[in-house]
Amino acid sequence: MAATSTCCNLIHGFAHNKLNGHHLHMYITYSKRCNLDYTRSRYNNGEIVFHNRIYTRQLFLLKPRNHPHRQQVSQSGFGEQVEEEEQESVSRETLIWRAIKLPIYSVALVPLTVGSAAAYFQTGMFSARTYFVLLASSVLVITWLNLSNDVYDFDTGADKNKKESVVNLLGSRNGTFVAAYLCIALGFIGLTWAALQARNMPSIMLLSCAIICGYIYQCPPFRLSYRGLGEPLCFAAFGPFATTAFYLLQGSASAMSNLPLTRTVISVSILVGLTTSMILFCSHFHQIESDKEVGKMSPLVRLGTARGAEIVKVAVMALYALLITFGLCKALPLSSIFLCSLTLPIGNLVMRFVQENHKDKNKIFMAKYFCVRLHALFGAALACGLVVARVV
């Protein structure tokens, strides 16, 4: 009854606000969370008169559409507050989707797939069980990277205005922290199990180096990303370390227990590292102001967006130049060269989009997702080319 009385007083206070001018209708929708059911209102002698019945439901006011007094009605405070709650409810779904960062998990899939394809190209052997154990473990490691990055950026204040931060969405810094380190523990157990099954200790050392790169990239007391060293660490972690480690683990299923480090695996690891670093680089375009405030000196903070756009252009051109160079050196088969060349349109899209929108914060955040597409498609083409070359 107290809640009902409070809600009645609030509505009646709103109802007796004087409005000048035109006839006004306000319609009310209601849901099960409420204590009142207001079915309709009408404008009468300068006042809004509500017709209501008492139920055990809660109301939501919908502002009248296309009405000259729409803004004045919202100034009462009640209608505006409810509309903001509705907008927040709708936008929260989008924020949750952004927080999950599902496309970013391609950085776990691509090194594993390319490394496994390189091992198949070398030996003709492939272990599905090892592949899926490594995939699950890698996803857990990437989840740790994302969650712990949100935690430590929350600590420094870098994410104070980032609504899609997991910490901001959950409202729990400690809960996110615990979840992050539970993921890394489970992921490392899976990686270690795969290495022990394959009896290949060099692979677990390489994967440990990759995880260490992730730690010193974002975690205290190192936080090397704040010194602009995130991209080199990203290149090393996902390129030479992770891709080569997955190559060794898959190759251990063959009669050759210790695969040699061939020109092929070195070449593909460089290409994978480059496309992965491009994702990280482009993710900073729309965060320059917030990074400056907390002293996070990312490359784009130092260079600015115009020079950053030129670097993206050079990086994409270097990617395909290296592809051709490795093909001419016979480090990569012609099938990989051909299939990877089919990704040129998405590479051109990345360059053009960044060049045209690097100053627009409302658009440039999409650059990292275009880089994710390039990373995934280029990696898939690279792996397929290796498999085709072995089969043929």
Automatic annotation (TrEMBL):
Superkingdom, taxonomy of origin: Eukaryota
Keyword Lipid metabolism in record: no
Cellular localization per UniProt: Membrane
EC number annotated for this UniProt entry: 2.5.1.74
GO molecular function: 1,4-dihydroxy-2-naphthoate polyprenyltransferase activity
Principal cellular location given in the protein's record: membrane
Membrane topology, record value: Multi-pass membrane protein
Enzyme type, top EC level: transferase
UniProt entry keywords in alphabetical sequence: Membrane, Transferase, Transmembrane, Transmembrane helix
Pfam family, one: UbiA
InterPro entries xref list: DHNA_phytyltransferase_MenA (IPR011937), UbiA_prenyltransferase (IPR000537), UBIAD1 (IPR026046)
Statement: the UniProt record of this protein carries the keyword Transmembrane helix: yes
Transmembrane spans: 102-122, 128-147, 177-195, 201-217, 229-249, 261-282, 311-328, 334-354, 366-389
HAMAP family: MenA_2
Protein name, per record: Glutathione S-conjugate-exporting ATPase Abc4, variant 2
Organism (species): Stylosanthes scabra
